[in-house]
Amino acid sequence: MDSFGALARVALLSPDEVSHLQNIAKDNHNSFPGFNLNCPLLQLKDSTELRQPEFLWKEALAITSQSTLKYQKKDLDRLANLLWSFPQEIASRLKRGGPKVSSTLALLQRLTLGTVAPEAFVHDIAFKIVAAIREGRVPQEMGLAILYGKLNKSSLRTDAWQITLILDVNDLGNFSHRVADPVVPSEWSLLLLQSDSAPASAPNELPFVCGLTGQTDVPVGDKMPSPNLPILGPTYLMSMNADIPCHSRYGRTSTKIFPAGKTSIHNLNNAIRFITHSRKRNITWTGVPNSFNDKLDLVITYLDEEPNADVPLVGLFADTEADDELKLAKYEARTEHIHQALKLIDKRGRDLHIQVIALSQIDKGRKQVIFSACYSTDAIYRGRDNWLAGAKNVPNIAVPFPMGKGKPAEWRSGYVPSPNETMRSFKVQWLRGGQLAQSVPGVELSRIYALMLGPDTHNQAKWLLDRYLPRTDSLIIGLARFLTGGSNLPQSFRKAMNGALRQALIVIAVYGILLHHQDRKKEIYMEGRDYLLGQFLQFSDRLHKLYCEHERKGSMPPQLIGNAVVSMAIQSPNRALQVLSQRMLVYLAWADRYKGADAGLVKWTRKELGRISSDLKDTDLGSKVATTGKAELLLGYLANTKGAQKDEEKAE
After folding, report:
1. H or E element: which one contains 614?
2. pTM surpassing 0.70?
């Protein structure tokens, strides 16, 4: 805008340039110097040929001040407010500003000089866009979309849309800062707050005290700010519908229900905008899975004592890597550098506290805090150590990942999932032996974080395992079938399992974490009945497979005998062993007389079955299997042994 209040020129800014510019935003409907401009600007004649670029450009060259606008009265009234009413409200409050706001004051003064009739302003923009297209400052396709709308190729109609218009002075060389310079907002905030300084109280009137801070302040007024949060969008700091009877039962609504001070609310708004700035993505904020739908929630974390620190704390709670190769790295490796950076500023004699806040969108008008907690750095260190120890609280279970045609599979084990991955795994119900994954409602984010960092992890782990096992046991049973059956299995089953291998590694680790927090350490449970029962089922499968390879010329049944009774064993160990004892007689007799090329492996498998049977003999096979026991049984069913591992590698 020139010194006479007229539009001098228009130009297109890159997304990176726009991301650093700032606004004065009173609410969703008043902002300066940038605001949304409705497009198209002009009415297009109802002619199909005019929707072609060459005809649209011809139409643009013929624009006059009498061209019909595509604006209704309400749109013009809104534009008049943005160009006149709101800027003048700001001007009176910034008039004592220094050099940083001199360009802002100049722009505000120029708005009073030129014509602010909204119709004339829109026509003037149209003229300047045509000039910008001619001079190469705006691409023709973009300029025509602003003038006449975006062409919908399926309907052959022009659709409405919006652009962000940012006003500035055209003689930038005369000022130290441009209007929307990122360093200017701090000066804006200071001047706006000073203009809101509390007036002197009447002799018998008590000063206003903010209910949030306990400090003397002035009332916030009728509305609170609405910061535009990443992931969630425009967010009301306070949302209340005065038309709902329960909201006015005490005779007060909106900001009158509690004494909120303007300074406190502005500071709160500034803090939210600072901590969720685009430059702080994956440092102080990122997205996390919603518990019950496919949308993302917003998680915010920062150091109370040093909010400016660039330690990427959010990586402790969420997956922030964009590189697929990094996503395959263990959680331990991904978070080690975060802990090292945190320890550099965690000095002795000073307490550091980490705030963790998660917000979710309930509906378009409401966002809700679904988790809020403050942790000491010691709790963070301890929580991560316990998480890692839990993921390792499982026997050695290696899973073969295909690496491409003609290449040997890569065996992976010991995966440590992030809290994000753990939460996602709760949202899947596995069916048909791991061949089908079905989306189901998950668990609250607070439960996952409480498992990692909370004081009562035993009860939390018990609650989670009760819900996790029925969702994942089918996948583990299918994985055991996949590991034992190998290439003899149907191609459709092998293809389904290949796509579920990473999820299986996550499930195995989560079993270990949930057992660890219930004081079920692997050194103890691997000697117990349920784990041994799982091992017995595995070796039953292996003996059955060896029999089929040598006596049936490789012809395999749909399920091996251990896999066929594993679900029964989870419910009744005694019943499952009775069924197995009858079916295994023929395979045991064969093993005792077999003297072929794999005699060593057959004899070893037969010997292991005898050893496990001996260990199981003194256990109570009639008692029910507890939830922890079911997880231990499934882990035992998958656990690799030295001989079994060699067998797998040989088959592969």
Report:
1. helix 599-617
2. yes
